[in-house]
User: Fold this.
Amino acid sequence: MMGVHNGIVLDTIAGGMNRRHALFAITSARVALGSQANSKVQVGTIGTGNRGRYDTNFAAQDGRAQVVALCDLYPDQLDRAKTQAPAASSAKTFKDAAEMLAMPGLDAVFICTPVYLHPDHFALAVQAGKHIYCEKPAGADVAGVNKVLKFARIAKPPQVIFFGFQQRWSPEYLAAEQIIRSGKLGDLLLMRAEWMVGGIRFGAQERQLTPEQLERVWYPFVSKSGGMIVEQDCHGVDVLNWFAQAKPLSASGSGGKGRRAIGDNIDFANVTYQYPNNLSGILTATQLIQTPGEVREQFWGSLGTITTHRKWYEHVAAPNQVTRVESKREITIDAIAQFLSHILEGKPKNMAFDACDSTLTAILGRMAVERRATVLWSDLRA
Assistant:
């Protein structure tokens, strides 16, 4: 997949510009797909747990893709994936990711394994020359993120690399971002991300897991998931970075573990990020909610306010000037559709660097909560 540039380099005859462009387009189309141009994108998924099945199902429903491979250590997960995504029922199954990535004709891979495995699987997929849709975050710790960065630098066009920060492909989030870029919000003064949800099981059920069952549990453990801020709240943090067009200089925070049955993951946190130009971004998050919670971001400017949400956005320019736009579908569909479009249209894209910045921002927030002190970006060391 890395030889797409050769034709351009060698074609140096006088007046050959149009020929070079044509050669690039033809080569890109052939490299984009494992078989012939204009065929479906041949997709495989590594990790067929809840999120893996979710992404695989959306990919299978897109008429431009064909799910041909599934990889997981556990047969029951593979069976569930085929049941929940009937279009993948004939997909070849694997236990070894490297073996799946060597499958002839495989064009693209979804990486949906536990967070701490993302860097290893990302590295394998880059080296195999596949288009990559890796679930967020980039890694569970600084060392893992650094490994993703290392291999992101190796990737070359026409490889397409997406991460599961779906908001960046939502038409509503993109419209809200354009309002900020247009200056209609004025100077950006304050940002906030809220992730107020449920998810914690109350009681002793998880304490009764067998060793085999416990081996498959990863979310409650910071070493495997990165912690609540890194695994879950990185979505909100990513939007703050994106809309601010910057990464924070420092973070301070508080939080703790209230009722989680096992593991060392926290279940509530409050983090303040300090961005350049005296801009603050506040993250408030918990998994203790027992009633409908709230997941949204808000941006206050000198001329108005924007609130973004997975199902809508709202722009308030004045008390009597409110614009609200509802989302047309679940935004993961938009992200996966754009991933496939970039592959089919031969449009290289590498989201790894933004994804790593947002993951490191989340790790910075986790460190601030753990230390109950102000932590600088320069403190992010492996």
Q: What stands out?
A: The longest strand covers residues 188-196. DSSP finds 14 helices and 16 strands in the chain. Confidence is low (pLDDT under 50) at residues 1-32.
